[in-house]
Amino acid sequence: MSEASKSVRNPSLLDHDEEPPLTPTTESILRDCPRFRILVMGKTGVGKSRLINQTFGVHDAIVSHTETGYADIDKEIYSKENPHFILHDSKGFEQGDDTNVKTVQRFINERSKMPLIKDKLHAVWLCIDIPLAGGRLLETGIEQFLKLKIEGKLGNVPVIAVFTKYDLLVVHETRLLKRVDRAGKSKEAISKLIEQNATTILNEMCMEPFDKFVEMKVPHVTVSTEYGYETRLSDLIQVTYEHVRDHLVDASVVTAMAQRVNPRVNIQASIAVGRRKYWERLATSVNFPGKKLQQCLEVIHTDIIAVWQFDDPHGYLASNYFKALMSNIVAAEGDETKHPNGPAKNLIAGISLIAGIAGIVSAVSGPAAPIVIPIAASFVLAKWAYDVYQQTTIVLRLLMAYIIDLTLILQNIFWLQALCGPGQPLSRRIIKAAARAYYESNTKQTISFKIDKHLEEASLHVGPDTTLNTIVELIESFTIDSAEMLESRRNFTVPDTIGDDEAWEALRTET
Q1: Is 36 helix (H, G, I), strand (E, B) or coil?
Q2: What is the pLDDT of residues 398-423, one digit of tens each?
C-alpha cells in the first residue's frame, strides 16, 4: 500500500463530508495526452541513446545500433521507467539516398493529420555530429530534410537541431592550446580560455553556417552527455518545451513531466497548469466557494506534484504526512529575528536556496541523525485547513503561501535528488531535507514578507489578477538557475549515496 492511501492520526485531506472532490487540471491533460511523443533522428554513433537516456531518465528506450543504422520509424518505443514518454527512432540520412527523407516526411505528415493530440508528433530532434576534422557540416539528406522544414512541408511540428558531443570539441581545443597560452594562468583561467576557443570554433563551423542555411527558422542546441555539461541538456529541454508549448499547449505540460533534467521547465509548466483554473483569482475564486480549504489544497497539491513526476513509488509526495507538513510550513511565519526590518534588500533571488541545499547535503548521506524540521509540524493537518473557503485576506495569504512553498520545496527535492540520489526512488529523508533547507533559508521569510506587502496594497476584487501575478513573480524570482547550482556543487561535498531512509516521525521537534 502506498503512503498516499494510508491513514494518519488526523483526518485525510479527502475527508470532507463526502463532498465530490475538485478535479485536477492535470487529470484532463493526461487523459488527452498521456505521453510526450518525440522523433529522434541521426546516424549510428551520433549519441542518440545516451541523449535520450539522460534527458528522460530511462535506460530501456533502445534506439537502433545496427551496422546499417536501420530503425522502424513507425515503431513506438516505450519505457517502464518513464510512463510519460514515447520514442520514435529514425536512422540518419545516407549520402545519395533520399529514401529515408521521404520516409520521415511521410511519417511526420501522417502524424500531423491525426485528430487526437496523443497521436500527434510533439517534437523532432535532429542529431548532428560536430565536424572536428573539417568535414562537411550537413550531409545531403539532412539538407533535404531541413529544406522541407523551412519550406513548410513538414507542418508545424517543432524540429530542433541537436549538435552532439560538444565535449570532444573541448578536448580537441585543449590539445591545440599552446604552452605559451597556458603560461602563468590558473587552472580555472585555462579552462575558461579553452571554453572560449571552443565556442568560437563552434560558432564558425556550425552555428553561423547552420543559421544561414535554415534562414534562422530551425532552433539548435549544442549538447554533451558527459559529466560537467548537464546545463546543455537543460538548455535542450528548455528550447524543446518552449517550441512544443507554441505548437500544442497540453503536450508541453507532458513534455515537462517526461523530462528529468530541467526543474525550471517543471516550474513553468506548473504555472501554466495553475493559470488555467485553480490559481486564477484566488481571492474571489469561482471554484472554491462552499468548499473546505482541505479540498482546495487537495487539488492544488495534486496538480503541482503531478507536473514534477518524481520517481515516487511509495506515494510520499501525495501522502497525508507530506500534506500535513506543508500545511504547517505554510502556517509558520518566517523567522523574523533574522530580519526584524523585513528581508535583506540585497538578497539575490535563488542564492539563499542554493546555500540551504548546500548546508543540508551532508546531512542526507551516511548514518546521521534523523532530519528534523524546526517547526511543530507533527502529523496533524494545520487547523486552518479545516476552515471553509472565504473571500478574506487571511485565506488568500494561506493559499498563496501553499502554492509558492510547495513549488519551491519540490525544486529543492529535485536538486537534492539529482545531487545525492540520482537514479534512486524518492525517499522521505530527501523530502524532509528539502523542506528543512527551504525553511531554514531566507526564502520563506522573504516570501512571507512580500505576500503581506501584496495583500496590503492589492485590490482583490477588481482589475487585473495581481494575486496570480505576484505568485508567479515570487516563484520565478526564487527559481534556481541550473548553471549556478551545478557550478556551486564544486564548493560543497556531495555524498556518493543517500543515508538509509527514515520514518516521518523524525519530523517532530521536541519542545
Answers
A1: strand
A2: 999 999 999 999 999 999 998 887 78
Residue given cell 499547449 in the structure block: 249
Question: Which uninterrupted H or E stretch holds 457?
Answer: helix 443-457
Report the residue count for the chain.
511
Pairing of strands 77-78, 36-41: unpaired
The span from the CA of 481 to the CA of 159, in Å, is 25
Q: Residue 123's beta-bridge partner residues?
A: 38
Q: In this structure, what C-alpha cell is assigned to residue 435?
A: 523542506
Dig out the grid coordinates for 32 from the structure.
Answer: 488527452
Answer yes or no: is pLDDT of 206 > 80: yes
When pLDDT is cut at 50, 70 and 90, the band that residue 347 belongs to is very low
Nearest Cα residue to 108 out of 154, 162, 68, 47: 154
The three cell numbers locating residue 5: 492511501
Alpha helices in 177-287 (DSSP H): 179-182, 187-202, 208-214, 230-247, 249-258, 263-276
Mean pLDDT of the chain: 86
Rounded CA Rg of the chain = 25
Rounded to whole angstroms, the Cα distance separating 284 from 391 reads: 6
Q: To the nearest 10°, report the CA torsion of 76, 82, 83, 84.
A: -80
